[in-house]
Amino acid sequence: MKPDSPDQLRALESAAYRIRRFALRMGEVQGQGYVGQALGMADILAVAYRHALHYRADEPEWEGRDRFLLSHGHYAIALYAALLEAGILPEDELETYGSDDSRLPMSGMATYTPGMEISGGSLGQGLTIAVGMALGLRQKNNPAFVYNSMSDGELDEGSTWEAALSAAHFGLGNLITLVDINNQQADGPSGKILGFEPLAQKWEAFGWHVQRASGNDMAAVLAAFDAARSHPDPQPRVILFDTLMGSGVPFLEQRDKNHFIRVEADEWQQAIAILDEKQTQAGDQQ
Amino acid sequence: MNAPMSKPRLTTSAMIASIASEGQRTVAAPFGNALVALAAGRPDIVGMSADLAKYTDLHLFAKEYPERFFQMGMAEQLLMGAAGGMAKEGFTPFVTTYAVFASRRAYDFIHQVIAEENLNVKIACALPGLTTGYGPSHQATEDIAIFRGVPGLTIVDPCDALDTEQATAAIAEHKGPVYMRLLRGKVPLVLDEYDYKFELGKAKLLRDGREVLVISSGIMTMRALEAAQALKDDNVGVAVLHVPTIKPLDTEAIVREASRGGRLVVVAENHSVVGGLGEAVAGTLLRAGVAPAFRQVALPDAFLDAGALPTLHDRYGISTEAMVASIRSWLR
């Protein structure tokens, strides 16, 4: 497959479809979950786990793997869906999501889940850990990348900016930060909670290689990952992804937005049916 | 005009003041030198500091192993988070800052990044308790209270240079997170006169006595030994049980010694009366059904004054003289 070929994009769209579907099925198991965020990040995770990251599905702690840190631990449902798609988690485990003694707790925890690198959730910590891991990898001459996935709300945390200064100071070219800008925080739209724009200029001023792209445009996501990975200068890279919560399920996209999208019991299957129908149509067009 | 010579010399409230008394034997930088020696055979050891390497004796490590030293800037949350990341990559970070900044500013990063995953990070922090006259911004009077609640975090409070040196080697050997109260600069040497060896998790009886049992940690063990000597002249026998590991606590030794007939139990610590060794010992004894007469030599539950250390140690009752006076009053 040639890079960025229509086949590649179709394969990634299919992966994103499956990630969305896994997330909705997990949401249905518990009747809740941060499914809006999972749908919003599905395209990014599809590119991460089906294109960018080096990993071994049967050996999650392989030393040569790229490290993917989920700083926003409440996005666990999204990462579990990606780990299911990647084959790091078996599909039948999906049914245990959020249950007692499950390896898939509602907030991501490193000691519970294969492929979950850190216990995120106390927001603003992931990037500090990523700096340490990137320094450690460099110290070991290990060429792996560290990806830190974080939410726009975490831009409020001072520790994020401590780490941003540090990554540039140390010239951590092995660090790629993904910021999910869905503009939704617990108390309202992110920009109204604590304004962070102009964001690209901030990261640039901190010494980072910066891209801003739509996180729900597969070709744009793919190009951004490739550019971040191949950037030749020894500087950390950030991709600011604007995403739409609930992406892929129109009635959830349009739902009154906040941090937590309410989904009624009968809506999970409706949402899955919509995804399935779109996927079938996409297949028919080929 | 009066000559200025009649004016008394003012004592200092400097941030870094020596805890050594006049004429006391000292050793320079026992932590820094011990770490340099250890690191020769331990390539996994790295040093990290938040703009306080020079004031935590970590500059010695930085000088000897520049490729293994990471200056993280004055950013304690980053320091702890990045140390966790380093540990996840197989390194053993020794991280240093002041005790106030580790305990108060970086707490959540120690709790969530380091302790929750049982990562192998050693946090060594200077200016524990009342060892600076700089006021509450720098006085870590409740660091042990803060950290005792963290599951799986080992807490060490060494007494002197010997203790510090041996504890540094022991915590490097230990697998898991450790918080060590760091004595830096010229550190008194006392325990070489006792048949003593630091063992992680073990309390050591340094001397025996019939009337009083002092259970102490950190620099208060040094003071307790001096107090015991002074009280000997009053024919008061004072035993000193040194407890350099606050967590996990050597409950067996504490219960055994406190059960030995009719002695007044005094817990002495360079820490607030709230949540430190004193309350840890009290809880241990209550749970064991042992109820001796019990007193605390500790800092008050208050924001302390700035001033010269000798003045403040007298004012708050943790100088040797104040401790002797307290014990005498309790025996009356």
UniProtKB/TrEMBL annotation, chain A:
Q: Which family does it belong to?
A: Belongs to the transketolase family.
Q: What is the lineage of its organism?
A: Bacteria, Pseudomonadati, Pseudomonadota, Betaproteobacteria, Burkholderiales
MF terms (GO), sorted A to Z: transketolase activity
Pfam families this protein is in?
Transketolase_N
The enzyme's E.C. designation: 2.2.1.1
> Does the record bear Membrane in its keywords?
no
Q: Which named protein is this?
A: Transketolase
For this UniProt record, give its keywords in alphabetical order, as a comma-separated list: Thiamine pyrophosphate, Transferase
* All copies of domain Transketolase N-terminal, residue ranges: 16-271
What cofactor does this chain's UniProt record say it requires? Answer: thiamine diphosphate
Q: Which domain of life is it from?
A: Bacteria
Q: Which CDD domains match?
A: TPP_TK
TrEMBL record, chain B:
InterPro entries for this protein: PDH/Transketolase, THDP-binding, Transketo_C/PFOR_II, Transketolase-like_Pyr-bd, Transketolase_C
**Single GO MF descriptor:** transketolase activity
Which cofactors is this protein said to need? thiamine diphosphate
Q: Which Pfam families match?
A: Transket_pyr, Transketolase_C
Q: Which UniProt keyword terms apply here?
A: Thiamine pyrophosphate, Transferase
Q: What is its EC number?
A: 2.2.1.1
Question: What are the Transketolase-like pyrimidine-binding domain coordinates in residue numbering?
Answer: 25-189
| Recorded coiled-coil stretches | none
User: What SMART domains does the database record attribute to this sequence?
Assistant: Transket_pyr
Supply the Gene3D superfamilies for this chain: 3.40.50.920, 3.40.50.970
Source species, domain of life = Bacteria
**Keyword Transferase attributed:** yes
Family recorded in the similarity comment: Belongs to the transketolase family.
This one is known as Transketolase
| Annotated source species | Pseudoduganella umbonata
